[in-house]
Write a structure and sequence with these properties.
The protein is α+β, with helices and mostly antiparallel strands and 240 residues long. The protein folds into 2 domains: 117 residues, no CATH class; 86 residues, no CATH class. The protein is 26% helix and 40% strand. It contains 5 helices and 13 strands. The strands form 2 sheets. Strands 1, 2, 3, 4, 5, 11, 12 and 13 form an 8-stranded antiparallel beta sheet that branches. Strands 6-7-8-9-10 form a 5-stranded antiparallel beta sheet. Strand 7 and strand 8 form a beta hairpin. The protein is elongated and about 60 Å long.
Length: 240
């Protein structure tokens, strides 16, 4: 009985030591990975990194991390040099192959999401007069459209106090298009433009977090808090 008890205690102590070493190692790796993502240019700000799965040291020996989660609330996305904030970014990276010194890392597949506020989204669109074929506006001048949530799949737009209807938002690759807007009857009277359609407004996001791109299906979704971007990628280089 005493021998069995000693063996049990020994196993418990050894397991505790191994668990402690494993958790220390994963913490060090998470900090190092966060720093290297910034240095590699894949992230504009140091993210929070969580390496899932246990034990971590076994994954290190195989040089493949099954599940890595990253998040940040201080990132930006860019269009032609103009940056806007990307809020609540989160991503799940699966099958991350790494070298033993973390100099390089390739992601087999990744998904993520983030939100651009409607005021920031409007800043990425051309001036309203440009969307009307260069016609100067007596109301709002060369101001940009004001955007807000218009219900499932739609955004509402206005020029100052004047509504210009609802629009749909779609993406083709990393290019986002806002289309379907038309001057209301009141807007026609005030602007004197008559039955004038507003040209579709498109912009392309040049920089994406973690090397991901917009999802091919439902890459953009209007939400009450802003436009949600959905990201995806395969065989993405995360480091190196």
């Amino acid at each position: 009985m005493r021998g069995w008890l000693k063996a049990t205690i020994g196993l418990v102590v050894l397991s505790g030591l191994l668990l402690g070493a494993d958790r220390i190692a994963v913490g060090v790796a998470e900090d190092e990975a966060a720093d290297r993502m910034v240095k590699s240019g894949r992230m504009g700000q140091r993210p929070d990194v969580s390496i899932e799965g246990f034990p971590f040291l076994t994954q290190v020996l195989s040089r493949r991390l099954d599940d890595v989660r990253i998040s940040s609330d201080g990132l930006t996305v860019e269009n032609d040099g103009h940056q806007v904030a990307l809020h609540s970014f989160k991503a799940k990276l699966s099958g991350v192959s790494v070298t033993d010194n973390l100099n390089t890392a390739t992601v087999a597949s990744g998904t993520g999401s983030g939100v651009i506020s409607y005021p920031d989204l409007a800043q990425l669109l051309p001036p309203a007069s440009q969307l009307l074929g260069g016609v100067p506006l007596p109301v709002g001048g060369n101001s940009r459209l004001n955007l807000s949530y218009g219900g499932p799949g739609k955004v509402k737009a206005s020029l100052g106090p004047i509504s210009v209807g609802e629009a749909t938002v779609r993406n083709n690759g990393n290019t986002i298009t806002v289309e379907g807007l038309k001057l209301s009857s009141l807007a026609e009277v005030v602007t004197g433009l008559g039955n004038k359609k507003i040209e579709p407004a498109a912009f392309t996001l040049d920089s994406m977090p973690a090397g991901l791109g917009l999802a091919a299906q439902n890459g953009v979704t209007p939400l009450p808090e802003g436009l949600q971007l959905s990201f995806e990628g395969k065989d993405v280089k995360l480091l190196g």
